[in-house]
Amino acid sequence: MLEKVIENWTSRLDYIQASRGSPMPEIIFKIARKPHRPVKAGTPAGGAEAVTLRDTYLALIRPIIEYGFPVYYCASAASLEKLEKIQLGAARIITGLRRSFPKEIVLFEADLQPLHLRSKNILTNYFNKLSSYGHHNKTSLYFKNWHNNQRLKRNSPFSYAEHLQLPSSLIEPHSLKSCLSPSEGLPRVHFHFNMSAPVTKQDLIPAHLRQLALESINEIPCDAIKIYTDGSRLDERAGSVIYIENSGQNFYFCHRNPDFSSVFKSELTAIKLGLEAIINESDYGELWILSDSRSSLQHLHNWTQVGDKTSISILQNVKLISKHHDVHFQWIPSHVDIFGNEQAGRLAKEGCSLLTTSSPSITYSEHQSKISRQLSKEWKSPPSHHWYAARKPGSFLDLNCDRASKTAISRLASGHTKSLSFFEGRKTFKFCSKCKVQQASAEHILDCLGLSREDLYDSPLLVIDFLRVNNLMDLV
């Protein structure tokens, strides 16, 4: 399938082997040494489906290109351009588009994000995560104290990180050490990940889940404080809320979190706010935190591995409260008409619209999500072209038709058909075999069939049928 292509690619990746100090995966050489038929860009590769070719490239080739990225980024611009050419060649084989096609369209049709965008994403993730470890990590400490006048190769990862203003000042520190002593632990803190019976939301109908949840809630002592917590996110905004029931008195508190905060962090923030709200109270029996986020409770239960700022604050407050009261973390299902949970869920969405009152710091993973979203938005913007008007990357890969038909649609969409050639710098086409009057450009073929450019995107299978009935597939 990709034997010839991989054989060519292996010769271009020789310098990668030297950088890694170890041979490429043996499977690549096994595939490359197998008997093969010649495969050229712009022609179907052994009859394989486009999606199969793309998956093969993503599984076998691109991981090798991106492996050890901080090392490869020191390479010269010419070497980095070779990597881009490797991916562009793969995109041409996947889509069947010829070399005359603009490379932006070829990558967009193959849904292969340019390597420089992916590299920026990887670099941002690498250095933000590294910097979040603070002085506990020697590499992180070296990076923070590094200056550009040190004797390192030009365009080194550190230089590029400085150019991108990394690490971000918004990244909150992540501790590598437990905030609690393992010998002491949390003896009066209890985690309940199930109700009266081990269940999941997929196992039972909402009415049964509600009944089990109410049974667990009704068993809570009357003199206990119950705190319902919830977190929510709307687009870039996030909010948290606590709903407290204490001796027949109910009150709530909404809180706006930093933009791009995850729902997971919003859930933890809600628990933190709940503990801070009652930490000075003493006239109660037990404390029950009721959350519909099982992952948040499991995260806190594994307290020896906790390192984020919000969770550390939670554990420290829990340790203080547990000296005088038993603390229970209880998971309850969401959206099953539990009054306290429904109130918290409704108010959490209101919290997203409040003004930001807290620190704008976010975790490195949330910052990375923000960067990935921005780069994805940049990538999904169609290339600027007078004829090409695809709405999303790889729009024709999932069509329910054969590979030749997908290639024909992609060629029509880009305006570069099989019959295209260049004479004295101008585009020329063979004459249309239907009308035998005008050159068979993509625009003329559609016009001759009584179709429009919009039909390529709205009804591509209909366009294929018209091409086959009128024997125009050879021109495309």
Automatic annotation (TrEMBL):
Source domain of life: Eukaryota
GO biological process, one term: DNA replication, removal of RNA primer
Entry EC number(s): 3.1.26.4
Domain RNase H type-1: 221-353
Pfam families named in the record: RNase_H
UniProt keyword list: Endonuclease, Hydrolase, Metal-binding, Nuclease, Nucleotidyltransferase, RNA-directed DNA polymerase, Transferase
Reaction(s) catalysed (UniProt annotation): Endonucleolytic cleavage to 5'-phosphomonoester
Record-stated family: Belongs to the RNase H family.
UniProt-recorded name of the protein: ribonuclease H
Gene of this entry: RTase_42
